[in-house]
Design goal:
Order of helices and strands: HHEEEHEEH
Radius of gyration: 40 Å
Largest sheet: 5 strands, antiparallel
CATH architecture of the largest domain: 2-Layer Sandwich
Number of domains: 2
Strand order of the largest sheet: 2-3-1-4-5
Strand content: 15-25%
Structural class: alpha+beta
CATH class of the largest domain: Alpha Beta
Helix content: 40-55%
Number of strands: 5
Distance between the termini: 124 Å
Shape: rod-shaped
Length: 186
């Protein structure tokens, strides 16, 4: 009978060990599943990070309205600082001067700026366009210096225009009228 008790005891221990092994197997299977899920998440994270780093920006398909002028964001702030540090000749009366040089920074069809309320700016409505200019000078060199400085500030498309007694004239004609022929070659 002792042998039977020992065998029963060993059988019970063996069954407990088998149950423990089955439990461990199910835990191992769960860990394998977690490992696979974690691996897939790591791959997705890696690929999305790689995509964000290496992607190229899509080209802009929308056409830019020709009435907008693109300048660096800080250009107007820089212009304001420049304006208050220099005299832009805004006390000149356009209609009384033989020749005036201005720096035109934009011409807009549908955009209207009340430039008369902004120091240093003038606005002319010609040929269906609202033309915005900065500074009024009786000397070509002063206007050219302002143009160069505005280009450095980000107004890369600005250019010189000239007027005689308030009417738009060609720069060459203005240089002749103001007796500044040395600048005709530029």
């Amino acid at each position: 009978m002792e042998n039977i008790n020992t065998l029963e005891k060993q059988l019970k221990e063996t069954q407990e060990l088998l149950e423990k092994i089955n439990e461990d197997k199910s835990e191992i299977e769960q860990l394998k599943i977690y490992k696979i899920i974690f691996g897939l998440l790591a791959i997705v994270f890696f690929l999305s990070t790689l995509w964000l780093v290496l992607r190229k920006t899509a080209p802009i398909e929308k056409e830019i309205d020709p009435n907008y002028t693109l300048v660096r964001i800080d250009s107007l702030k820089n212009y304001k600082q420049y304006y208050f540090s220099k005299n832009l000749g805004n006390n000149v009366n356009l209609k009384n001067e033989k020749v005036i040089y201005l720096v035109q920074i934009g011409a807009f069809e549908f955009f209207k700026l009340n430039a008369t309320k902004i120091n240093g700016f003038k606005q002319f409505n010609e040929d269906g366009l609202n033309k915005i200019t900065v500074g009024t000078f009786t000397k070509y060199l002063n206007a050219k210096q302002l143009q160069d400085e505005l280009i450095d500030l980000g107004f890369e498309d600005c250019f010189l225009s000239s007027r005689s007694y308030g009417k738009l004239i060609d720069i060459r004609e203005a240089l002749s009228l103001s007796n500044e022929p040395e600048y005709l070659e530029q």
